[in-house]
Design brief:
The chain is mainly alpha-helical. It is built from 19 helices and five strands. The protein starts with 9 loop residues before the first helix and ends with a helix.
Length: about 425
């Protein structure tokens, strides 16, 4: 990576800006950093168009206090003025963080890394760039060791985050900087295992009843099969076998496939949902829209598969969007953020006092199975845990039959709900 510096830094200029008060500065930096991270992750150029998209998708995604809106508008006003002067000076508008992200993204693409891995590495590269300040310092392995030590001792990042950061920086030095000998010599610190937060049947029912209709079925499938968020979003029509009452997870964590249970109580709902999805699919085909994205090398081996019904998303997005890998405008699956935001709104409306995230449905699935008498080995297979010791954490909180030989806890809950009604 080039060490030349012809770029202006809005962060540096914001610190020196005389037209920004000391009281305004932290708020300006917060929202502009948020915008920059969002923009870079979506590979958008700096400017008003990216800012408008950010405002529509991020700022307006939830209620904001009037003072926040006013402050953020002032921050973007300052940013637009800064852009105008930077463009007039003919300087590089991309920050060091953005250039590092793009360099790592390109290197990851050459290595065949998955998009999610490239994004993870790129974001750690951005954090390291912010820490190092200059490109020259970034290429100093001693600086990287200081950064990793800071993550361990000061920020007390989890062990998995520490490993992510270490792997990302090793990749940066080897693949971006071309340094063959990389030894960051940092001893990672393992963090204690945490007991998962588990919600009971009544709390799940309260959350589901407050979810918007288009997100409720998604949540029911997640709890009913114990899926991770990424696995849930990536489900395709062919992955749901109604006859066998099975959901097949493709390329789950560790790039492994597995089978989990499809609740009988959701069969009719899913069939009706698929009919509505078929209308979306047919509309795309009638407009000759590009097919959905395919995993790995399948797009090259089966170029037409993306237009076939069985490969269509089970939970498609309402609108087409730009594929970040190819730049093609096509229909993607529901964005994870829109689902998790809707879930958080439902949790607040239900008055749940626990820290409930989408992953809480997976914790509840495992715990309720354990409480119903299912053995740990079976639960391990359904969850896709590589080691049964991971599954054993549910023993600390634990108080109809499908094709896998397991009845989903969703069916137990549905039966209780029917009795109450």
């Amino acid at each position: 990576m080039s060490t030349s510096s012809h770029a202006l830094s809005w962060r540096d200029d914001l610190k020196k800006a005389r037209n920004v008060s000391d009281a305004q500065r932290p708020g300006f930096e917060m929202v502009l950093s948020w915008f920059e991270n969002w923009r870079v992750g979506r590979r958008l150029q700096p400017g008003r168009e990216a800012a408008r998209a950010f405002w529509a998708h991020q700022v307006k995604s939830k209620p904001r206090a009037p003072w926040q809106i006013e402050q953020w508008k002032e921050a973007f006003g300052w940013y637009f003025d800064w852009l105008k002067f930077a463009q007039a000076a003919g300087t590089e508008l991309r920050t060091l963080e953005e250039r590092v992200f793009q360099a790592m993204d390109r290197a990851g693409g050459r290595q065949g890394l998955a998009l999610r891995t490239r994004e993870t590495y790129g974001r750690w590269g951005m954090r390291y760039a912010r820490w190092a300040v200059t490109a020259r310092d970034m290429m100093n392995q001693e600086k990287a060791r200081d950064f990793l030590t800071h993550l361990v001792t000061v920020e007390k990042q989890s062990f998995s985050s520490q490993k992510q950061a270490l792997n990302a920086l090793v990749f940066f030095f080897r693949e971006v900087c071309g340094q063959e000998a990389v030894d960051l010599e940092v001893k990672l610190r393992k963090t204690a295992k945490r007991i998962p937060v588990v919600v009971n049947f009544q709390e799940i029912l309260a959350i589901l009843s407050r979810l918007e209709p288009r997100y409720r079925l998604i949540a029911e499938v997640q709890y009913g099969g114990g899926l991770r968020l990424k696995e849930l979003m990536r489900l395709r029509i062919k992955d749901v076998d109604v006859e066998r009452r099975q959901i097949t997870i493709r390329q789950g964590k560790g790039d492994l496939d597995r089978v989990t249970v499809l609740p009988e109580a959701l069969v009719t709902k899913l069939q009706e949902h698929k009919e509505r999805v078929r209308e979306v699919y047919d509309a795309d085909r009638s407009e000759n829209a590009p097919g959905v994205a395919l995993p790995g090398a399948l797009a090259r081996k089966f170029s037409k598969a993306g237009t076939r019904w069985e490969w269509f998303w089970l939970f498609p997005a309402p609108e087409a969007s730009i594929d970040p890998e190819t730049g093609i405008v096509r229909r993607h699956h529901v964005h994870p953020g829109t689902y998790t935001n809707a879930l958080q709104r439902a949790v607040r409306e239900a008055g749940i006092e626990k820290r409930m995230t989408s992953h809480g449905f997976r914790h509840a699935f495992a715990t309720h199975l354990l409480e119903s008498g299912k053995d740990l080995r079976t639960i391990q297979e359904l969850l896709g845990h590589a080691d049964v010791r991971t599954t054993e954490m549910y023993t600390h909180v634990a108080k109809g039959v499908g094709g896998t030989g397991v009845k989903s806890p969703f069916d137990v809950m549905a039966g209780q709900a029917a009795m109450i009604a």
